[in-house]
Amino acid sequence: MSVPSPGELTEKIATKAGVGVEVVETVLKANAVSLVPVPPAQRGLDVRRLSFSGERTRTQWDGPFNAVFEFSDGVTALITNENLRGKSSVLELITWALRGSARNLRADVRLWFTRIVLEYSVNGVPMAVVLTKEETGFVADILRASDADVLSAFLAGDAPADAVSYVKTGLSEAEFKEQQDQLMLTLLSLEPITNFQKRPNSDQGAAQDNTWPAYFGGIYLPRAGSEILFGDVVFAALPARILQLFCNVPLMSTQIRLSTLGKVVRQDEANQNRRMTEDAAARAGERAELVAELAAVEAKFAELPSQGDRTYEVVAAELRHAELRLDELAAVSRSAGSMFDEAKAARQAEEVRANGDRETELAELLFQGLNPKHCPRCEQEFEKARVVREASDHECSVCTKPFPEADPDTGDEGEAEDSGDALEALKEAEEAARVSAETAAADVIEVRRTIERLARELAGASRADEFTNRVALQLEEARLRGRLESMPEGGEELPPSESLLVIEAANLVLTEVTAEAAKEMFVDLNAEILALGRKFNITNLEKVDLQRNGGMLVTTAGAEVPFKKVSGGERLRLRVAVIIALLRVGARAGVGSHPGLILLDSPGSDELTVHDEATLLEELDSLKDELPGLQVIIASAEPAAVVDHLPADSIYSNLEGGPLW
C-alpha cells in the first residue's frame, strides 16, 4: 500500500483548504500532526505460564489450591463440562496481569487468590507480573530478565536476585493499573486513542484519551452477545483503531486523530461564535442606553457658545513655548550686543594705534632730516670727532649709540600696509556683529509681540464660561464612545479559522488517501471473511463489507444489515472470521501488527452448535502454521467441540463436574 509523499499531501491539503502551503505546515506542526507514514510496528505478546495459589471458600470444593497453566503457539483450550468452574477466571487472571485490571473477575472469586504470577514476553523480552495479596489489597511487582528460563527459575526460588531486574515493585492496584497502561503502550509502540465524545443530554463534547485497556479489546474478544465488532467499550474511534492494530493502513491513525481534532476545534469556534451572539443580545439594551446618552452629550455640545478653532490647552501650550523661546532669544540678543560692543571697541583701539604710528613715523622723518650741531640739553657744540664717527661708524652724534640696523624684509611701508589690513578686518567684524545684534533684537521684538497676542487669545479663551463644561463633556463623550467600541453592535459570526480549515481539509485528504491505499486489502479481507463465514455455517451469507471505521455490513438472504443486527451466534462466528481474515491478510500484505495473542471466552454459549464451534477452533488452530507465534486461549463448556479437534497437550480440562483448578 502506497500513499503520496508528505510534500504532495501538503499541497493537496493547501488546495482543499484554500490556504498557502506554509500555513498548512504551520498548523500541522502546531498540532503535532505528521504526514510521514509510519511502518507497521512489529509487536509480539506471548503468554508463557500462569501460576496462582490461594484457598477456595464457600463452595463444595473448599480448600487450598495451587495451579499452573503453560501456553504454547496455536489454540490452548480450557474446558469443563459445566459452567462456573474457573475457565473464565483463568482468562481474567491473564487479563489482570497484562491489562492492569481484570475485565470481569467475580468479586467472590477474587477473594480466593493470595498470589498470582504471569510469565510472558513483550517483543521477545521475558517479563513477569507478580500479584501478592496483602491487607490493603494486592501488591504488584513487574520483573524482566534476559532469558525466560532464568526468570522462571527465579520465580521458583532457584535463581539469584541479580538474575532479574525489577521494572517496578510494591505497586498498589491503582498504581499497577497506571503502570501497565503506560508500560504496555510504550513497549508495543501504541498511541492513546483519542475520540470526540459528547456529554449526556448535551450537544457539547470533549476529546477523550483511551489507552491500553481499550486496545486490549483487540486481544480479549467480546463475548458472543456483544453488539460491537471489536473492543469491550463503545466509542466511535475504537473499532477503527483496533482494526489498525491488525492491519496497519498508512496514515490511517493520523486521519482518525485529525477527525477528532477537527471536531474539537470546530466545537470551540462554534462556542466562541455562540458566546459572541449571546453577549451581543445581552448587551443590546445596554448599548441602546449608551447611544442615547451619547446623543444627549452631543446635544449639549451644540448648545455651548461657539469656540475658536484653537482650544485653551493648545493656546496655553503655545504661549509657554513662546515664553521659553523669548528667554532663549533674549540671551542670544544680549550675547550678540556684547559681541558688537567688543568689535566696536577693538576697531576704535586699532584706529587710535594706527594714528599714533603715523605720528611717530612723521616725527622720525623730521628728526632724521635734522643735522644737530649742539646738544639739545645744554646747547654746547658737539665735538667734531662725533660727527666723523656718525658718518664712518654709524654712531649717533647726539647719544653716541649705534644706529639700529634696518630689516630688509620689513619697512615702514609694510608696517603701514599691515596696519591698514587689520583695521579693515576689524571694521568688517564690527559690521557683522552689528547686523547679528540687530537681527537678534528684532527676533526678541517679534516673539514679544507673539506672546502679547497669545496672552490676549488665552485670556479670551479662559474667560469663556463654558470651558469647564466643555472639558467635562469631552471626557464623557470619550468614555461613552469607548464603551460602545468595546460592545460590538451585532453578533456576526466569525469565519472558520485557518487552523480549522487546514485540519478539516487534512482529514478529508487523508480519508481519500487511506481509502485508496486500503481498497485492495479490504477486497481481500471481505472475500476471506465471506469464505470463513460460510465455512462456519452462517446461513444464507451472501456478502460482507468490513469498513475502515471498524463497522461491518452483512447481507444474508438478500437483506443487508449492520453487524449488531445479526444473531448472537452469527456475531461470534463473524467476529472470529474477521480476526482470522485480518491476521491472514495482514501477514500476506506485510502490514500486520497485531501482537499475536487472542483470548476468547465461551464461543458456544450463544446459538453455536458443537460442530460449528469445532470448525471454528480447528480454523483458529491452523493459523499457527501460517502465523508462527500466534496464541489463542479459549474457554469452552463444550468438550465435544474441543476433544479430538485440538492436540491433547493443548487442552486443560476437568470433565467430571469439578473445577478446572
From TrEMBL:
Recorded superkingdom: Bacteria
Protein name listed in UniProt: Large ATP-binding protein
Region (Disordered): 401-421
Keywords: Coiled coil
Coiled coil: 437-464
SUPFAM superfamilies: P-loop containing nucleoside triphosphate hydrolases (SSF52540)
Composition bias type Acidic residues, residue spans: 406-421
